[in-house]
Design goal:
It is a single chain. This protein is mainly alpha-helical. It is 64% helix and 6% strand. Helix 1 packs antiparallel against helix 2 and helix 1 packs antiparallel against helix 5. The termini are far apart. The model has no long low-confidence stretch (mean pLDDT 87).
């Protein structure tokens, strides 16, 4: 596809970096617009976004190094750890570190954690969907070989995917399904019953989406039980269980309160 957008002297602009940056900006823009609608200080939202992005980058890089099967290579080439423009990020690492930074900031500034989380949820789905297009152009997160008519064949020697082999377009799968998740969340928002519902729904939907797409992926990302399950699928399970518990706990409280006020 197009792993390198252009080169300017010693500076190389990778397409994946451009799309990932665009995805981050989409998420921030969405949250900023929601803050204005809900009369929340936009400056606090911008500061919150910066804190989340910085820690998300750290977490995404750390998880990629530790769990994507490249730890030994990074130990032998430690300076490569700092070369963020070459890729090597794991969404769940970024999500968990970013979530931790967000919780810390929200509590420190006395904001409503669940309200902010609900406001951010659709923007997260939209931003990740856009970012996955960058993975497609770079060949990152590539799929298994297939003879399906919609397979893609990478030909650029700088592509992260193997060249000359028809592969599942797993990046496009992710983008299309996440756009569906975005639409579901927009619809869900109109029928939201309690704070946190939208964000918890996003977590559960993303975990399901990620686990499904992982079936078709073939890039190094850590596999266990003789390739039966990947790191991301394990993390999806660890994330979805507490999300489900929180969702139904809050839902029961909502139902109980509704009965008491009738």
């Amino acid at each position: 596809m197009l792993p390198v957008l252009f080169e300017l002297g010693p500076i190389t602009i990778h397409t994946v970096s451009l799309f990932h940056t665009g995805g981050i900006l989409i998420g921030i823009w969405w949250l900023y617009q929601q803050a204005k609608k809900n009369q929340i200080d936009p400056q606090k939202i911008m500061d919150l976004s910066v804190a989340i992005v910085l820690w998300a980058i750290i977490g995404a890089r750390l998880f990629s190094i530790l769990f994507d099967g490249s730890l030994q290579w990074y130990l032998e080439n430690p300076m490569k750890i700092l070369m963020l423009w070459n890729g090597g990020f794991t969404f769940y690492g970024g999500f968990l570190f970013g979530l931790g930074a967000g919780i810390w900031y929200v509590r420190k500034h006395n904001l409503d954690l669940w309200q902010i989380s609900d406001m951010a949820a659709p923007g997260l789905a939209l931003g990740i969907a856009f970012g996955r297009l960058g993975c497609f152009f770079s060949g990152d997160s590539y799929g298994k070989p297939t003879n399906l008519p919609w397979s893609v064949t990478f030909t650029d020697s700088m592509s992260m995917a193997p060249t000359g082999i028809p592969l599942h377009p797993t990046q496009i799968y992710s983008t299309l399904i996440l756009l569906m998740v975005f639409g579901i969340l927009i619809w869900w928002k109109k029928h939201q019953r309690f704070k946190g519902e939208l964000f918890l729904a996003f977590i559960m939907l993303y975990a399901l989406v990620r686990s499904f797409v992982e079936i078709f992926r073939n890039d190094p990302r850590g596999v266990y039980l003789d390739g039966l399950i990947s790191t991301s699928q394990i993390i999806s399970l660890l994330v979805i269980v507490p999300a489900l518990w929180l969702y139904f706990t809050k839902w029961r409280r909502y139902k109980k309160l509704k009965l008491e006020t009738q």
